[in-house]
Amino acid sequence: MTITSTKIWLSSPHIGEGEQRYVKEAFDTNWVAPLGPNVNGFEASIESYLDNDVHVAALSSGTAAIHLGLMLLGVSNGDEVICQSFTFSASANPICYLGAKPIFVDSEKDTWNISPFLLKKAIEDRIARGKKPKAIIAVHLYGMPYKVNEVKAVGEQYGIPVLEDSAEALGSTYAGVKCGSFGDIGVLSFNGNKIITTSGGGALVAKNKKYKDKAVYLATQARDNAPHYQHSEVGYNYRMSNVLAGIGRGQMEVLDDRVAARRSNFKYYKQELGHISEIEFLEEMPEMYCNRWLTCILTPSVQFRERIRLALQEVDIESRPLWKPMHLQPAFENCDYYVDGTSEDLFDRGLCLPSGSNLQMGDLDRVIEVIKIAMTK
Ligand SMILES: *Cc1c(COP(=O)(O)O)cnc(C)c1O
């Protein structure tokens, strides 16, 4: 008997019914440009979804949104910016685009996100050394909300704005309020592996309409209001295409379903693997609702983690170690950091399991079976 099974991906795009209609409309009306009705419609639907009096600018990527967001918060050459160390490199790279210096802060165990305690310690130490950080980048990693109130309180105590990296957390909430809408600036990503996708894209979320307008101005080459092309500032080409925004409008219609599917993946993994004493899951704290973008497990050691990862790989199932902390990355080896070992330990022991909203029950069963066998070896 030959068993034919297809590759199981970590997190693959999951397209609904409406996307092609919006994209076709863009073609039919010749709005094949980095502006048009889909861009406006997509922004409006994100604004109404986030439902917290925010203004949204659709951009070419989440990274572009972080870059412009830091500019709006006044970050420039020579400044210091505090960044959660346990994250994807895109959270930190834009700090360097601006000639500023990342200062990395470790995570706490409850949420795996920035530790309010170490954040405060880092800020006080930077101030004692003569420079107050210009901004704080906090990340809702894997969709799990960071301790929003504590981080906000520390920021307010020292007068430092928070940039909320919600690239992985669309659909998550904290105290009933949607992630992405808490920060002075919020950031969303619609890359192909995120909870919803435009193939590639992102958005900047602002409480203040002036921030949105400035972001759109900077994202469209910073054109002044004149009949010719007049520029008082250096601009960027960061606006989202009207074609891709059409995909985004369709994806917004199925966002709730996608969150439900990913949460149900988590629930099933936990039901089937939760009794194994060597496997731990990250639980939600009170007031937190996680979109479960990726289901992550913690194993007893890096050797255990590798045993599972390689056993999955052997049968064409993609899994991935948790993010390697930024303070351990060669690209950032000259940056200062405030850590207590938490994120390094998570990186060593943690593994992301296939978590796409388009996975079938049989796919999950295959993953679970391989893990159970690997655990007994
Ligand atoms: C994906 C991601 C980004 C960057 O988004 P892109 O749209 O891929 O540029 C930023 N931060 C985090 C935490 C991410 O996961």
UniProtKB/TrEMBL annotation:
Domain of life from the UniProt record: Bacteria
A matching Pfam family: DegT_DnrJ_EryC1
Keyword GTP-binding carried by entry: no
Record flagged with keyword S-adenosyl-L-methionine: no
Keywords for the protein's UniProt record, in alphabetical order: Pyridoxal phosphate
Biological process terms in GO annotation: polysaccharide biosynthetic process
InterPro entries in the record: DegT/StrS_aminotransferase, PyrdxlP-dep_Trfase, PyrdxlP-dep_Trfase_major, PyrdxlP-dep_Trfase_small
Any one GO molecular-function label of the UniProt entry: pyridoxal phosphate binding
Active site: 194
Modified residues (N6-(pyridoxal phosphate)lysine): 194
SUPFAM superfamilies reported for this sequence: PLP-dependent transferases
Coiled coil: none
UniProt cross-references to Gene3D superfamilies, sorted A to Z: Aspartate Aminotransferase, domain 1, Type I PLP-dependent aspartate aminotransferase-like (Major domain)
Family per similarity comment: Belongs to the DegT/DnrJ/EryC1 family.
Protein name according to UniProt: dTDP-4-amino-4,6-dideoxygalactose transaminase
Organism: Arenibacter palladensis
